[in-house]
Amino acid sequence: MKSFQATGVKKRYGGAIALHGVDLAFEGPMVCGLVGANGSGKSTFARICSGETSSDEGSLSIDGKHTVIRSPGDAKRHGIVHVHQHLSLIPELSVWENISLGNETHSFGPFPNNRIAKDKARLLLDELDLADLAIEEKVYSLTSEKKQMVEIAKALLQAPRLLILDEPTASLGYAHVEKLFKKVMDLKKEGVSVIFISHRLWEIVRLCDLVYAFSNGKGAGVVDFQTQARDENLIVPLVTGHAREENAASGSRNRPASEETTLELQAASHDLDVCGVSLKVEKGEILGIGGLADQGQEELVLMMSGMLPRTQGRILLEGKEVRLRHPREAVRKGIFLVPGDRQKDGLFMNLDIFENVIYPRFPMAAAGFFLDVKSLFRMTEGLTKKLGVNPPNPRNVVSNLSGGNQQKVVFAKWLQFTPKLLLLNDPAKGIDIQAKDALYLLVRELADAGTSVVLYASAVEELRANCDRVVIMFEGRIVDEIKGEQITDESILTSSLTKGVCND
Amino acid sequence: MPASLRSWLLNRVVIAYLLAAGLMVIGGLLVPNFLTFRHVMTVIQASAFLGLITLGQTVVIISGKEGLDLSVGGIFVIGVILAAAILRGNDANLPLAIGAVILCGFVLGLVNGVGVSYLNISPLIMTLAWGTATSGIALFSTGGNHIGKASPLLETIGVGSLSIKIGSPGISIPWVVVIWIITIVAAQFILRRTSAGKTLYGIGANNRAAALSGVRTKLFRMTVYGVSGIFSAVTGMLMLGYVGEPNINLGSVYILPSVVAAVIGGISFAGGTGSYLGSVAGAIFLTTLDSILATLQLGEGGRQVTIGLVLLILLFSYSRKKQEE
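ok -> structure tokens follow
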């Protein structure tokens, strides 16, 4: 009889299958690790356990008893508490108010007893070794690290029997990771089990008793540290090994090295998100930026586009220093960004294709003050046909287009000019395979014509199939570089998971 | 009903014109001689002052970020007293007065723009406060006295008409209306067919996307408030021509109607949509309603209650329609 057992858990979102029948079981109290690449189904599994989403098939049992969890309230009654990757605190409330929210102690009618709530909050924070954190402080004034710790304290107030920690260490510095680990060990001694999700294998190796690897929504293997040696090399092949079925090289990668450098960063930083990054992008090169999620890749791309300010370092475009304080400067110099969120940053959703495509001409004064609507319309028509926007009529409102076609409109905005440097921030997110292939073919054509491309993609195979060179980022720094033939899914994943571990 | 006709009839601008025309007909039924050409022109002349102020209001609302200009009344009054003080009844001072009023309106509007765009103050608060302050400046600088007056040429523009010989008596169109028509055509052209107009709609529809396309959105939005200031101040100068002598109480009546006219005309507070043509219909609608109620001699209380109720019904039906969409 296992204290926690999940059998055949399946979940699909629309057409995409997030989990194809996952089994997981452990005997508590225990720290059970979940590892896997982005999108392998770890977080979905955690959400099912805590009742935030329901599984399509499969069952859960706790202490041998079949258990149905339909809502977070059900989960709480069974002692399952989930600490989210994305924080759920209310910024305007104080630390103690956030911790007690939803778990108030009532000593008189409907009125919560604030003294008890404050005492409990203080006690929990002390147990987490956070004596210096004032409970009266408003949450918005805390660092993201402190916020994460408050989030954990909030979960602990609910006296969980099973605590699910979804990448809790992503925003924590070394000292706080230690505090968290100590608390997790204490919890285990008190009989509480923990499901611990992390991309950082050394944390998994140190903390967990049992590790389940996920790959593409399936269980990819189990490592039991109670019987096996605590070695991360036991885990790496499980995560990377069968990660991708297809592994066709794109063939067009053998690009002769170019003499010309389009863009050069010299120790460029943005706050703590990008720390002293130096790199060169050659003319006609497609440079990939890889690594685990949220290691400063997007900030780096946004910094090159002038969206995020540079706090240190220099940027040189074709050998000349540029300031890039505003996207306007980047755009006028031929540095174009395809943003990660096309609806929020890329398009005017309630305007038509034509209005969207011609818009960048205005700040560049490329259209003049008085518009020659007819010729601009013909130009737009030509672009939509060339890019295969469907339907091609430029009078279609953008919000009616599919994701892939919307992204083509974003590209059309920039392709009417000759880009020197094209910055792609996860351009294929949420679009189907055909549209994705068409987009990357287009990017390759642009690169062959001399445009330099910087590509950040959350999916490893997009980097592998399209890049001439991939740099791996970890905590805002570039920790590795993979070139040409050495670029494989495995090499990117291994480097993402293992490089930069003990650089501090 | 064919789909194209149906969608045309559901267009907010078309609805606004139908409403204004319908109200005119109601006026004709209730009030004798309401629908004569002369009287209709008088109503449209009165609408022109509101309509010109509403142009500023319209571009500010289109620029998005909860854009609103409640300082139109205050800047309008500054336009009135500044023009009177410079003109002092002499046509020779007219070029100087025009220049000063435009510059002053622009600078006063820019103050709103700096607050909203660079200091991130809510437009509602910023323009309300600055409108109050500019009204105060008007009162303070004149001490409540009439200083100077309109010049003969300005008075001709304010009250006179352009006569056109069509038929035996001919028709006459007030100069103010002529100016308004020219402004409407120019505004429509600039909003629809120039980089500046398109840029305006873009920053209203999606400020981030506009910035990423290379637009200096803060600078642009600040300038939009400056332009609204110009329209308020210049309309104040025209109003001086209409009334002859400066009066610091002229502006406050336009503040809320300028917002309401834009809303009736189909402007959305979300920004990025709508046109000035709709606001024009909204201005005519409001002025016609006011005119009917004035001739019916309902008294001030009855007038305000009726206007309030009509607006509530209109806005209610608009929001219903939006939900259906």
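The mean pLDDT of chain B is 90.
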